[in-house]
Amino acid sequence: MTVRLVVVSHSEKIADGAVELAAQMAPDVVILAAGGTADGRIGTSLEKVMSALDKAAGGDGVVVLTDLGSAVMTAESALELVEEPAGVLLADAPLVEGLVAAAVAAQGGADVKAVKRAAEAVYGLGPEVAAASRVLAESTVAEGSVTGSGPDFTGDFELVNEAGMHARPAAKIAGGLASLNAEVTVNGVDGASMTSLMTLAAGKGSLLHIEAWGPDAERALNYVGGLVQAGFGEP
Amino acid sequence: MVLDVKWALRWLTLCAQAMAENRVWLIELDRAIGDSDHGENMDRGFQAVLEKLAEAQPETPGAALKLTAMTLMSKVGGAAGPLYGTAFLRASTALGDAAEIDPGRLADALVAARDGIVARGKAESGDKTMVDAWTPAAEAAQAAAADGAGTVLGVLVAAAEAAEAGAVATEPLVARKGRASYLGERSAGHRDPGAASSALILRAAVGAAA
Q1: Per the CB < 8 Å rule, is B86 touching A77?
Q2: pLDDT > 90 in chain A, percent
Q3: Does domain A4-122 have CATH number 3.40.50.510?
Q4: Which residues of chain B are within 8 Å of residue A46 when distances are taken between CB atoms?
Q5: Where does the HPr domain start and stop, copy by copy (chain A) (predicted)?
Q6: Residue B102 C-alpha from the chain's centroid
């Protein structure tokens, strides 16, 4: 599963910079920049967007991130003109945070809809979204099940790496969870949201309480627990 | 008067002239409530349209408008690019491959252009945008075409006059869409640049048919 990303910005520098930033978190994801006009001014160009969409075609779908109003309009115009618009989704998300979240989800093997959701989830920022999805998961389990409304699996793990929970560990957790069919919270925030995990500001020695729901709950718990105990491969 | 590809080419040439002549005025309108690039963008966009038309030599009005749409979307840069691009694209689709345009089809094309702008920009009447020029223009065009004695020139004149009145009527409005909406109440007292350039485009269509 390799979802590709296209960044449409009024500024070539913003698009290139956002791609550079996201690529650091998601080295295997194809991310294409379509920033500025063809002659290097501020603005958006249908030609540039079409060319990026053309290059991004052939994977397992494309998610497009945009900045201000007319970038959205140019991207929508491009969708009206591309040959296979079905595999191309526009994400309504803040450009930089949304792109990083989308790139992490794509790196983790999420499908095109999940990558779009990951980008858009940064609007909700954490606890409320996690709480809402937990309520959903609980109501699903409660019907015809004797397990009650608690999580399917829980665990507590201590952060052992020096830097604690920062961008790369958060990306690893969120990226891996994106490909699992499970709802996971880490100290109450959505484990599939890299930005939410970073808001925990958990340092070395902090205890992470993991709760997981859904068919892949056990795998998800083992995945997160394993990463944390191994210090994310960091000192 | 016959609306054929020669008319379309005259229209687009007059659009380019109007944008060049009104470049500074549109820049000033946009400086008051936007990012002051509208005149520059429209001038550049229509100059590029003229170059493309000279290269490709389209054979129907619809083909000329489609080429215009693609060029504006690629060259204008600001919001006007995708908005006018979509307008010309939808109008081109409404015209199909007809060699000559009758009053009914002309009105249909203007309505399609307006619908394209609304779909792309998601603005409504009264938001202080180009929709405030295009909606009265499309409605006036339909009314003129529905009149059995309606001629293509009559439809064009009705559309242009309604667009001009609509553009003037944006002056007291508070912007609810686009960059001007960031200004809130301070956007009142200025004509919307997109409505102004829309009126220029529809006036040029009359000039090409006169």
Answers
A1: yes
A2: 47
A3: yes
A4: 70, 73-74, 81-82, 85
A5: 152-235
A6: 19
